[in-house]
Amino acid sequence: MAGLIVYYAHPGHKHSHVNKYMARAAGAVDGITFVDLYRDYPRFDIDVNVEQQRLLDHDVVLFQFPLFWYSTPSIVKEWEDLVLEHGFAYGADGDKLAGKRMMLAVTAAGPEDAYRNEGFQHYPIRTFLTPLEQTARLCNMQFAAPYVLYSSLKAPSAGLVEPHVEGYVRLLEAIRDDRYDFTAAAAMDVVHFDSLPMAAEV
What we know:
By secondary structure, the chain is of the alpha/beta class. The protein has a single domain, classed as Rossmann fold, CATH 3.40.50.360. It has helices at residues 19-27, 37-40, 48-57, 74-83, 125-128, 130-138, 155-158, 161-176, 182-185, and strands at residues 4-8, 33-36, 60-66, 101-107, 142-143, 147-149. Strands 1, 2, 3, 4, 5 and 6 form a six-stranded parallel β-sheet that branches. α1 links the parallel β1 (4-8) and β2 (33-36). α1 (19-27) packs parallel to α8 (161-176). The protein is globular.
């Protein structure tokens, strides 16, 4: 069984269209660790020792957040700056995260066709997530294709919240139970609730 920790970051949680439902569902999944960064660290006073031990205790690290100005909410960057120390996550003797996996669950307000070279945002969503992917590489972690929902602001009226949240729970349970096909996911740019790569039943 793979140890899974979910770090949730949304500075406007109560106004969320999708993430608050994802977070509620993730927090109810048995056998995983769920951390709400803004709830636990409202003043950004991140406990480095606690967080590093959490990383040591889990095999898969998943960050859930809405895309903010083409990046993460600020507390995720603060967490990275403090927790992923030289000598722990990278650099000389910094091999504590080697072999672990990093994954993202991201919502984007814009439609999928906006995240193309010819679209409104001019780049695929993976391009905006490159700093996190490279962070995983620097820490000798394997980066998995992110779980993405586009047009998140319109998701309630489009009836997409429930299937996206249900897909998220399936994803988390599959990772927890070693049923998620990370090899197949490596060939994908992103995964959606209707395209989760599951390992074949034995």
